[in-house]
Structures are given as structure tokens and as C-alpha cells.
Amino acid sequence: MNRLRDLREDHDLLQKDIAKILGMSQTGYSQYETETNDIPTAILKKLANYYDTSIDYILCVTNEKKPYPKANKNA
Fold first, then answer.
1. Residue 68's pLDDT is what?
2. End-to-end alpha-carbon separation of the chain, Å?
3. Is the pTM of this model over 0.90?
4. pLDDT tens profile 4-16
5. Are 48 and 55 in contact (CB under 8 A)?
6. Using CA atoms, how far apart are residues 63 and 53, in angstroms rounded to an integer?
7. How far apart are CA 49 and CA 55, in angstroms?
8. How far apart are CA 55 and CA 72, in angstroms?
9. What distance lies between CA 14 and its chain's CA centroid?
10. Domains of the chain
């Protein structure tokens, strides 16, 4: 199961489109989808925010696509 590819395709985007959003090369992004390289935390956060899901969903820890509630920064 490749959640990154599925999320990207669900949004009708190409690898080069997501790579541009992330400020990286298409080849570099492709290595995340093929699991050749681990995804850095900062990139995971950007992807989760972009796709409005959780990092756990991207990493297949959960099947729940809905993101977690945002933390209250004033607490």
C-alpha cells in the first residue's frame, strides 16, 4: 500500500507537482513514494497539512484519513 501515491493521485497531481510544492526535485519525491528514502519529519508535516490528513495515515499506522484536532497553542 502506498498512501503517498494514493493521496497524490486522488488529488489528480503528478509527482513533479508535489515536488514543486515541497521545494524539491521530482526524483527526490519519487524516492519517498517508492520507499527508497525515509521521509523527513518536516516533509511529513507539510504533506499531512497539504492533504488534510495525519502523519499516521500517511505512514499506514491508521486507516483513519481524518486529521487529528489541532493543538491549542495557548494552553
1. 80
2. 37
3. no
4. 999 999 999 999 9
5. yes
6. 11
7. 9
8. 18
9. 13
10. 3-58 (1.10.260.40)
What CA–CA distance (Å, rounded) separates 54 from 61?
10
pLDDT one-digit tens code per residue, 23-69 = 999 999 999 999 999 999 999 999 999 999 999 999 999 998 888 87
C-alpha cell at 59: 505512514
Q: At what angle do helices 15-22 and 26-33 cross, to 10 degrees?
A: 110
Sign of CA dihedral 17, 18, 19, 23: positive
DSSP string, 10-67: HTT--HHHHHHHHTS-HHHHHHHHTTSSPPPHHHHHHHHHHHTS-HHHHTTS-S--SP
Residue with cell 497539512: 49
